Amino acid sequence: MPNAATARLAYGGDYNPEQWPEEVWHEDVALMREAGVTLVSLGIFSWARLEPREGEFDFAWLDRVIELLHAAGIGVDLATPTVVPPAWFYRAHPEALPVSREGVRWEFGSRGAICHSSPAYQRAAARITRALGERYGRHPAVEMWHVHNEYGVPVLECYCDTSAADFRRWLRDTYGTLDALNAAWGTAFWGQAYGEWSEIQPPRAAPTTTNPAQRLDFARFASDSALANFRRERDILHELSPGVPVTTNFMVSPTQCDTIDYWAWGREVDIVTNDHYLVAEDDRNHINLSMAADLTRSVGGGKPWLLLEHSTSAVNWQPRGIAKRPGEMARNSLAHVARGSEGAMFFQWRASRAGAEKFHSAMVPHAGTDSRIWREAVDLGAHLGALAGVRGTRTAADVAMVWDWQSWWAQKLEWRPSEDLDTRERAEAFYAALFDRHFTVDFAHPEADLTAHPLAVVPALYLTTARAGENLRRYVEAGGTLVVSYFSGIVDEHDAVHPGPHPGALRDVLGLTVEEFQPLRAGRTVTLDGAAGPLTGDVWAETLRPAGAETVWSYADGPAAGGPAITRHRLGDGTAWYVSCRLGADGLDAVLAAAGADAGLAPRDGLPRDLELVRRDGEGGRYLFAINHADADASFDLPAGTADGAAELLAGAPLTGGRLTVPAGAVRVVRLGG
Question: Hey, what domains does the chain have and what are their CATH numbers?
Answer without folding.
Answer: 14-33+248-390 (3.20.20.80), 399-599 (3.40.50.880), 611-672 (2.60.40.1180)
